[in-house]
Design goal:
Blueprint lengths: L8 E7 L3 E8 L4 E8 L7 H17 L6 E8 L3 E2 L4 E3 L8 E3 L1 H8 L3 E5 H12 L8 E6 L3 E7 L2 E2 L31 H5 L4 H12 L1 H4 L3 H5 L9 H9 L3 H25 L3 E5 L1 H5 L1 H15 L6 E4 L6 H12 L3
Parallel strand pairs: 1-4, 4-8, 9-12, 12-13
Antiparallel strand pairs: 1-2, 2-3, 5-6, 6-7, 9-10, 10-11
The protein binds zinc ion.
Length: 328
C-alpha cells in the first residue's frame, strides 16, 4: 500500500440483514470511530443514503473532513455483482437489486468497493487476525446462514461475480432430504445453519417418532409446539443433558464435518477459522464433532480449525481490509 498524502482514514461497512455497522479506521486498520443502526429498508435507495449519512456522521465525530477518506469497503452477504457494486436479488432485503457503491462514490468522492462479507472476513483474518500472513486460509461462518471466504496461494478467491466461495451451498446430503433457502436440495446450509437447523430437527423427529420424541426435554420445553423451535433451544437442551438433543447436535456436527472436509478438499488451506453466532455461542458443541470427524471425509491434510479471535468484529475488520487492499 502506498501512502497517499492527506488521506488518513479508511471506512469499513458491515451490511447485515438487520444491522449495518460503519467504522472509521486509520490506515493501519486501527478502528477509531464506529456506529451501528438498523438497516433502512424503506426503499432500495435508502441503504446507500444511510451509508453516506453514517460516514459523514463518523467524520464529524472524529473532527475529520470527508476529503481525508482514502477508501470505503462495503462487506455484504451476496449474491452480489462486485464489478457494478450492486446486490442482486438479496434474500435479506425486499428488493430485486440494491445499488451500493455508485451513490456512495459520487456523494463522498472517494473510491468504494463492494465485497462478499465472508470474503471480506477472510481478508480481515489474514490482515488483522489469527491468519496474518497465512497463504492458504479459509474463513467459515455458521450463523443464520453458512458462508466462507478463501485465500489461496495468497490471493483472495472472488470468481466472475465475486461469489466464488459459496461453501454454504456445497452438497452434503446426496439424498437431498432438506431444501435450501436457495431452492436447491441437500446444501450444507439447509441442515446446519441457524435458520435451517430447526428443519433438520423436525425432520429427524418425524423419523424417530413421537413416542420417543415426547420424552425429550427439548419437546417438553416447547410444549410440543415444534414451530417455535430455534437453534438455541437445541443447543441449550443438549447442554442441559437432554439425550435426544445431544444426539441431534452430534448428527449436525457430523454434517458440519462433511462441509469442513469439502472445504479442505477444495481449497487445501493450512488454517480455517470459524465465526458466526451459532458457532461462537456453541464452540464446543459445533467444533468438537468437526475436529473428530473431518478426517473421515477429507483426502487433504486436515488444517488447524479454530474459532476466530475477532468475534463479531470480523465483518468490519474485513471491510476495512477490503478498503485497504482493493482500492488505491
Ligand atoms: Zn443452497
Amino acid at each position: 500500500m502506498t501512502n497517499l498524502p492527506g488521506k488518513k482514514y479508511l471506512v469499513g461497512v458491515d451490511l447485515g440483514g438487520t444491522w449495518v455497522r460503519v467504522v472509521l479506521s486509520d490506515c493501519q486498520g486501527l478502528i477509531v470511530e464506529n456506529v451501528r443502526e438498523r438497516v433502512d429498508v424503506t426503499s432500495s435507495e435508502a441503504i446507500s443514503l444511510q451509508l453516506i449519512r453514517l460516514v459523514r456522521f463518523l467524520c464529524k465525530k472524529r473532527g475529520a473532513d470527508v476529503a481525508e477518506l482514502r477508501s470505503v469497503g462495503i462487506a455484504s452477504a451476496g449474491p452480489l455483482d462486485m464489478e457494478r457494486g450492486i446486490l442482486v436479488n438479496p434474500p435479506n432485503f425486499p428488493f430485486d437489486s440494491i445499488i451500493l457503491t455508485e451513490p456512495v462514490r459520487e456523494a463522498l468522492r472517494v473510491p468504494v468497493c463492494l465485497i462478499n462479507d465472508c470474503a471480506a472476513a477472510a481478508l480481515g483474518e489474514t490482515t488483522f487476525g489469527a491468519a496474518k500472513g497465512v497463504e492458504n486460509f479459509v474463513y467459515i461462518t455458521i450463523s443464520t446462514g453458512i458462508g466462507g471466504g478463501a485465500i489461496v496461494n495468497g490471493t483472495l478467491l472472488l470468481g466472475k461475480d465475486g461469489n466464488g466461495h459459496e461453501v454454504g451451498h456445497f452438497v452434503i446430503d446426496c439424498e437431498g432430504r432438506l431444501t435450501c433457502g436457495c431452492g436447491r436440495k441437500g446444501h450444507w446450509e439447509a441442515y446446519c445453519s441457524g435458520r435451517n437447523m430447526p428443519n433438520y430437527v423436525r425432520m429427524r423427529f418425524d423419523e424417530i417418532g413421537l413416542r420417543i420424541v415426547m420424552r425429550s426435554a427439548l419437546y417438553e420445553g416447547l410444549h410440543g409446539d415444534l414451530s417455535q423451535l430455534c437453534a438455541a433451544d437445541l443447543f441449550n437442551a443438549a447442554r442441559n443433558g437432554d439425550k435426544l438433543s445431544t444426539m441431534l447436535v452430534g448428527e449436525i456436527g457430523k454434517l458440519n464435518a462433511i462441509g469442513f472436509a469439502n472445504v479442505t478438499n477444495a481449497y487445501d488451506p493450512s488454517m480455517i477459522t470459524v465465526g458466526g453466532t451459532v458457532a461462537l455461542k456453541n464452540i464446543e458443541a459445533v467444533l468438537s464433532p468437526v475436529w473428530k470427524h473431518v478426517s473421515d471425509y477429507a483426502i487433504n491434510r486436515v488444517p488447524e480449525i479454530k474459532p476466530t479471535q475477532l468475534g463479531e468484529n470480523v465483518g468490519v475488520y474485513g471491510a476495512v481490509a477490503a478498503a485497504l487492499k482493493y482500492l488505491p
